[in-house]
Amino acid sequence: MARLILIYKNKVVKKYKVKDNYEITIGRNKTNKIVIDHVLVSAQHAKVQKEKDGIMLIDLRSTNGTLVNNQRVSKCKLMHQDTITISNHTIIVDMHDSLSLIDTLGLISKHGSENKDDSARTMVLSSEPGHTVARIVFTNSGEEHELLNERTTIGKNRDANIPIRGFWSFLAGKPTAEIQRRGEHYFLSYSGGKFKPRVNGGYITKPVLLNHRDKIKIGPLEMLFVRGPA
Predict the structure, then answer these.
(1) Of residues 70 and 98, which shows the higher confidence score?
(2) Per the CB 3.0–4.6 Å rule, which of 27, 144, 164, 214 could disulfide with 225?
(3) What span, in angstroms and rounded, lies between the C-alpha atoms of 226 and 219?
């Protein structure tokens, strides 16, 4: 039976068997099967599961990415002796339950996937914005609204976190849209009114995951969703 071997600082932390009809989730949240408590790891970072084509690794839209043999991936088929790198931890793929500790450490050395200096790991993984408070930036005025709450409303209602004012406000909803924070991710959804939100030019019909520098337009409002420098 295939297994995953979690390595930290050249020591085996734990081994996990890859079973049929069972997924192994990886992330910072304690509900995951493999918990990696590090600031660069998303709450739900990645998962490993058996599919018809074999054992697959799937990145769960993590902020700082998942590497397989030092290459960033979104989904890939895992092979024997592959090394998965998430933050400062390494996971070795042992398809035949046959690798010794010496074999395992040799693979880490071969792929260079275990960095002695965490700052070097941060430089590799932080090419995309990560672990900063997300915010909405108005394109014209530069006005900013930090998304500090689990739910941020946009509309003409008095208690809206991001208000729609002026001549066009009578067409807006109470609220028009809202941004929900779910763990590391932010979703924009339509709530009501004549102004249907657009993301990167397309109208949304269901909650949409926001990515860094997505362009949002709601009636007269034009904004950017930003995680890190604008």
Answers:
(1) 70
(2) 214
(3) 20
CA separation for the pair 27, 62 (Å, rounded):
9
SS3 216: strand
Q: Are 145 and 116 in contact (CB under 8 A)?
A: no
Q: Answer yes or no: are the C-beta atoms of 28 and 42 closer than 8 Å.
A: yes
Q: How does pLDDT run across 179-202, given as a tens digit for each residue?
A: 998 878 899 999 998 899 999 999
Determine phi and psi for 66, rounding to 5 degrees. -125, 135
Q: What is the pLDDT of residues 117-145, one digit of tens each?
A: 333 332 233 333 334 568 898 887 778 88
Report the Cα 160 to chain-centroid distance in Å. Answer: 27
> Distance between CA 94 and CA 176 in Å, rounded?
51
DSSP class per residue in 40-52: TS-TT-EEEEEET
Burial of residue 179 (CB within 10 Å: 0-12, 13-18, 19+) is buried
What are φ and ψ of residue 118, in 5° steps?
Answer: -65, -25
